[in-house]
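Entry for the shared binder. Reason: the reviewer on the internal report wants the predicted structure included alongside the sequence.
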Amino acid sequence: MRLSAYMALCFLLDDSTPQTMLHLLNNGATVMLKNMLHQSKDILAIAKEKGLNMSKAAQGQLRDLRLIIEKSPAFVAQSLISISPQLLSLKVLEQIVTKYRHQGNFDAFLPQGVVYKIIEIVKPFLSLEKCPSQKVIHSHTLEICLSILESYAIGGSILMGDEISKENLSTVAGVFPTVQNWAQEKDLGPILLLSLRLNINITNNHADICDNLLHPRLLSALILVIESKFRQLSDNLEESSRLLSMDLLVLSLGLLLNLAELSPCAREMVQSSQVKVSESSETGLDRLLNTFLERLERSKDADSLEKTEANVALGYLSLVLGELCIDNHIRYRVRSKLPNASFVSLLDVLEERLELVTNRLRTYM
């Protein structure tokens, strides 16, 4: 089974044509991979279990196979202490799902129980206060799980069936604030971005999902990122850090936009005392408004790069504030904080954003 999974992985890395994908899907590969998800021990530890009665020669061959797997292109960049059937299965599933989606196929094709099990693998990470050490559980496993879920969620396939329960949605929602608290943003950037994209994919046009995903901890984390990343727009960051900050800012705004648009509960939570970014008495809505007003003032003196980035992000923030204003009591509160108690400044940003998009589209005509 382990050898079959490794051969499938090599096959996918070398040849990702539709014919290869169909061959794997139609010949029971995903069922085999589903069964392997339950085996989290290192393959050498499994080989030594008494019940298997594996000979020393067979164990030696498995040791050689493990070394080949460890040095393969799929794992060479990772310092992995444990290589388990579960990890191997996840890597093959990642290749299958991402390549299938890149080819434009958005069907639900994974066997029943695979999505549920992947979310179960994610769940233990939520109880960790810091980035896990390799000896216990590896953050690379979390990244692969999120990569599979994020790709599979494109097109809404992940929402079919009963695998995404309210408890599972709570797990999905908890990843972003948990990883953000590990305070290793540069190293864990891919995990944070995957988590945001996954949440965006499953909340797109799904009001019920938005309500079930909702938690004050998630909203607080989003608002904290939005606030801090806007401030970093004027910092002299190196290119990779600047791009990561911009991606985190835009995706955080995108997820908050989905929640504000589709969930009355989210709008109420943002302006209530449930969502606090710091020890101050300010609500999430107060912090968003303060960020909007600060950036509005700074944009007048910004250089070209900062102004371009600020225009994009400020456009999204103005959309978030606009969606929050669906509710009368929030609309009155927002307007009272804006210059001259008027929506003119908010509308100006929206019009500028619309003009930017219009001009960009015209270049393609």
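Summary line for the report: The chain has 18 helices and no strands.
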